Amino acid sequence: MINKESLLRGVKAVTPLMLGVIPFGLISGISAANTGLSIGMTMLMSIGIFAGAAQLASLQLISINANMLVIIYTALIINLRMMLYSLSIAPHIQKVNTKWKALLAYSMTDQSYAMSSVHFMNNPEEDTKSFFFGASISIWIIWQISTVVGYLMGSIIPPELGLDFGIPLTFIAVLLKGVAGWPGVIAIITSGIVAVLASQLPMNIGLVLAAIIGITAGAVSERILSKKSEVSENE
Amino acid sequence: MNNTQLILTIIIIGIGTFLFRFSFIFLYGRFELPNWIRKAMRYVPPAVLSALIFPAIVIKNEVIWISPQNPRLIAGLIAILIAWKTKNLLLTIAAGMGIFWLMLFI
């Protein structure tokens, strides 16, 4: 059963982020139209993949007539981060049945994952299924609508507006909600630096590499800092 | 690329992406997870988001561009400051976009 209040809390948590999601959905629809995709194909992509960055990268590769395997590889390597989200959110929805797990997994985005995972850490009593679903499904609905609108009205939205910038802004907004003390700050800095430097590496491995190094840096520094405080307590 | 290839490409990416999302949500509880991994998971949101943010504001046309002339960098840094000080999601995005446009068009 869905707990209505928890669901609404999930919806409410991500509502401000729509300011960044909508422009990105528009861009995704516009790019699909510019690449020459039919509206049906655009929706197949938007519903079937439901991951903006990977969709945009695929569209760009389709438009330059890239090899099919290159497109698949690129989209999947961009989405590999979802496995980390899956591992991180799993304990919170362990008791949910498999059908719901599949639905929650399918509809999970960067934003709904990040907002939910932070919320669950601070509110252990929350009905996790309802909250997570509320957060994910509202982004899903808005994403599909803005993709269609972008597809249909693409020609009147000038590309110089840089609407894609909305997405890193939603990440920035969410980022500082979930910082877990100094180790969190160290994770952010390490991962950011590695991601920028590794973006020059081939095969798009920068993102996953940076994430794993950043997580490790956070965990290791947590260990070092807690040992230090133990030592100073014993003195 | 013809239509069949395109549909196939989308479906393969779709299934792969779903399997990534579902992987550990499905597997969790079926095996024992080492404690250090469980602890490290706390750093997934900051590390992954940061790895998404910084290339998006620092890199333009595949080149690192650190300069006060870079609108994404400046707007992004100010947004980080606003997010840190206010924790306000809407304000962070609105201000970031506003500063970005100001720098683009002035």
General description of the model:
The complex is a heterodimer of chains A (235) and B (106). Chain A starts with a helix and ends with a helix. Chain A is built from 12 helices and no strands. The relative contact order of chain A is 0.16. Chain A has 235 residues and is mainly α. Chain B is mainly alpha-helical and 106 residues long. Chain B has a domain of 74 residues. Helix content of chain B is 75%, strand content 4%. Chain B is built from 5 helices and 2 strands. In chain B, strands 1-2 form a two-stranded antiparallel sheet. In chain B, a hairpin with a 2-residue loop joins β1 and β2. In chain B, α3 packs antiparallel against α4 and α4 runs antiparallel to α5. The longest helix of chain B has 25 residues.
Tell me the number of helical segments of chain B per DSSP (H or I, 4 or more residues long). 5
Distance between the termini of chain A: 53 Å
- Approximately how much beta-strand content do the residues of chain B carry? under 5%
Largest sheet of chain A: none
Helical residues, percent of chain B:
over 70%
What order do the strands of the largest sheet of chain B run in, or round the barrel if closed?
1-2
- Judging from the principal axes of the Cα atoms, what is the shape of chain A? globular
Oligomeric composition of the shown chains: heterodimer
Q: Count of helices of chain A?
A: 12
3D shape of chain B: extended
Profile the largest sheet of chain B: 2 strands, antiparallel
- Give the largest interface: A-B, 98 and 71 residues
